[in-house]
Input
Amino acid sequence: QVQLVESGGGSVQAGGSLRLSCVASGRTFSRDTMGWFRQAPGKEREFVATVNWNGGWTVYADSVKGRFTISRDIAKNTVYLQMNSLKFEDTGVYYCASSWAVSTQRGDYNYWGQGTQVTVSS
Output
């Protein structure tokens, strides 16, 4: 059974940091593009960051560029999202996802985790 399990969410004050992790299991993800998306209450799920299979290609949403860093450990089947200088508007449920394509488009992602809540207080 394919599973993506996120962890590391929580509550933090503005300016603080969090590190999200996503562990993949059930199949080999070493060649997949891995991405992070987020969804705030009442809003659509939006792209945050993505990394290709070897970490050589990363893309960030403009809203997080310079503050967030995506990385992966192929041996551990794990992808990370280091979030620094958090803002109130970063609040939402963060989802990990995998894609067979090199893409930032939500529709290109095949497997999704259940999400982890990030709450930033101003």
Q: What stands out?
A: The radius of gyration is 13 Å. The CA atoms of residues 73 and 79 lie 6 Å apart. The chain is about 0% helix and 50% strand.
